[in-house]
Design goal:
This protein is an all-alpha fold and about 280 residues long. It has one domain. The chain is about 70% helix and about 0% strand. Helix 3 runs antiparallel to helix 5 and helix 8 packs parallel to helix 12.
Length: about 280
């Protein structure tokens, strides 16, 4: 029997509710050391958001001169790019940190220790939060320097947009991490493409109203669609839509619950089958 199939007796006696901030901090510290010791990792975090801001910034300038819609609110596309990257970076921050543990074949060592799955989830979400900030903040500064537009002009709703998008990214990242844990590194490509499956119905660059009616019904259950509709309402109409914010929060509660439950389920199956020590393709 694998030593990972059951926790040691002193851990089995502890309730699942037991929670160690110290163990979470230790995991976050480990991921910080990985980032700090590799400047290419840090550069990569800021590279793609910056390139997208520059590219779409010039596109926005062009559209502002030729389109009445975008002329109403310069920065709609720039804001969409930056907010979309929060979702993407949030998901990638979870899955990349988890995949690094699998690539280094370190999961077995981690879970022989007292580390619990729910503590690892909190650690993954925490490091994802910091990775996202590292990637986004330089891009927002360049948007001001190059194009005179600040996404912070969205005001306090920007905080709600940020957390709704990153929580949705966490939920997707947890599901994908669980899938890779259960089915091996052969499934890791899913971690890179999963979030793009919801992009067409999230209304990133266009209103949800342009979608077919049946897709609009599907888009209602995507938190990101409410965020991007709320962003356009502020920039184009000067109106804050509290209903959209509340919808996004409520749906995200469900998403994060499902994502966590899926990760726990995949983890339990992997542990019972001894897969934590056999991480192959």
């Amino acid at each position: 029997m694998s030593i990972l199939r059951e926790y040691p007796p002193h851990l089995r006696r502890s309730s699942f509710a037991a929670f160690s901030v110290g163990r979470i901090f230790a995991m976050v510290r480990r991921y910080v050391y990985l980032l700090r010791g590799s400047w290419p990792r840090i550069l990569e975090l800021a590279y793609w958001p910056t390139m997208q801001v520059v590219m779409f910034g010039f596109l926005t300038q062009f559209l502002a001169e030729t389109s009445n819609y975008y002329a109403q609110a310069f920065g709609v596309l720039l804001s969409a790019v930056l907010l979309w990257d929060i979702l993407f970076r949030g998901q990638l921050g979870v899955t990349m940190s988890f995949l690094e543990e699998m690539w280094s074949r370190n999961l077995g060592h981690l879970f022989v220790s007292p580390l619990r799955p729910h503590e690892m989830i909190v650690a993954l979400m925490t490091i994802s939060f910091f990775r996202t900030l590292i990637g986004i903040i330089p891009a927002t500064i360049l948007a001001v320097l190059f194009f005179g537009f600040s996404v912070y002009s969205l005001g306090f709703p920007l905080i709600g947009f940020f957390f709704n998008l990153i929580v949705m990214g966490w939920a997707i990242g947890l599901v994908m991490s669980g899938v890779v844990l259960r089915y091996g590194l052969g499934a890791e490509s899913l971690a890179w493409v999963a979030v793009f499956a919801v992009a067409p119905i999230s209304g990133i660059y266009y209103p949800i109203g342009v979608l077919p009616e049946w897709l609009q019904s599907v888009a209602f259950f995507i938190p990101a669609s409410h965020v991007f509709e709320g962003m356009r309402a502020i920039l184009v109409n000067g109106e804050y839509r509290a209903d959209l914010m509340i919808n996004a929060i409520l749906i995200n509660v469900v998403y994060l619950s499902i994502g966590s439950a899926a990760f726990f389920s995949f983890f339990r199956t992997a542990r019972n089958r001894g897969l934590l020590l056999n991480l192959g393709e």
